[in-house]
Design brief:
With 280 residues, the chain is an alpha/beta fold. Helices cover 30% and strands 28% of the residues. It contains nine helices and 16 strands. The strands form four sheets. The protein has a five-stranded mixed β-sheet with strand order 8-4-9-16-10, with helices on both faces. A hairpin with a 5-residue loop joins β2 and β3.
Length: 280
């Protein structure tokens, strides 16, 4: 499915294809579009790329009135517009994204993907496009859990394949990571008493608690484990990564980033200058 670059992605059968049905590699003829190679010549990029996303990650990517919307959707649209390629959107569960990039089922993935050394061994990243961290939410009537130190021995919900799940297993003594493919299942587990808490990326936790979870969940403790999000790219696409990095820097510098962020999060990010420094 080739999508016109606009502020949303229409929800169609092709967009809902899962990993096994994804097209392989970049589709379309080679063309010289934007960006520079290492030798200063114009980069040889594709007309279109298969972009994977997990559309259960509000407010980054989610379904609304038959369309895929969110900050990530706006970001990848804007990057594609500036670099000069069409987006072929494929949706999949988060734990299928990295394997899909490794096998060539996807060319690009944007889904709040934390930049880690382990992942960087098998995929490439753009420069950071978002600065995040982890937060905890518990039931509104839970006054025992006030921070990460109180999660020892608890059952903690998170998303399957996420760095948050890794953090629970590796850093919280005696805790059981109760992982789910879909984030709403993780929140419902806490609301229904199947998990003591959820530990996940701060913007998603805060957004859910202020919307669907209002009155049933509360955020507790401080932000911890600062983490940058990068757009993941299958290895061997150095020119594409360079062109996307140039676009990210431009989007931040000309104010477009602040406008998109404010639309989804209500105000400009306090860390915008730090993000800009990493994009230069």
């Amino acid at each position: 499915m080739k999508l016109k670059r606009q502020k949303y992605f229409a929800l169609t059968g092709a967009a809902a294809l899962v990993l096994g049905l994804s097209a392989c590699g970049g589709n379309g003829d080679d063309t010289d579009t934007g960006g520079n190679g290492d030798n200063g010549e114009a980069a040889d990029l594709e007309d279109s790329y298969v972009v994977a996303s997990d559309t259960s990650f509000v407010p980054f990517a989610f379904e609304e009135e038959g369309e895929y919307v969110g900050f990530d959707m706006d970001m990848i649209n804007e990057i594609a517009d500036r670099v000069g390629f069409e987006v072929e959107l494929e949706t999949t569960n988060f734990d299928g994204i990295i394997p899909g990039l490794q096998t060539g089922s996807f060319d690009i993935a944007i889904a709040g993907i934390g930049i880690t050394e382990e992942r960087a061994e098998v995929i490439d990243y753009t420069s950071p496009y978002y600065m995040s961290g982890l937060r905890i939410a518990v039931s509104v009537d839970n006054d025992e859990i006030q921070g990460v130190e109180d999660l020892e021995g608890m059952t903690v919900a998170s998303r399957l394949g996420s760095t948050s799940a890794d953090y629970i297993n590796e850093n919280i003594e005696g805790a059981t990571a109760n992982t789910y493919e879909q984030l709403d299942q993780a929140y419902l587990s806490v609301e229904g008493g199947g998990s003591d808490a959820i530990l996940y990326d701060a913007p998603n936790v805060e957004y859910y608690v202020s919307t669907a979870g209002e009155g049933s969940l509360q955020v507790v403790g401080d932000l911890f484990e600062a983490e940058n999000y990068g757009i993941a790219v299958s290895q061997g696409n150095e020119d594409l990564v360079e062109a996307m990095n140039d676009a990210i820097a431009e989007i931040i510098d000309d104010g477009t980033y602040a406008e998109m962020y404010s639309e989804w999060f209500g105000e400009e990010p306090a860390w915008l200058d730090d993000l800009a420094a990493q994009a230069d």
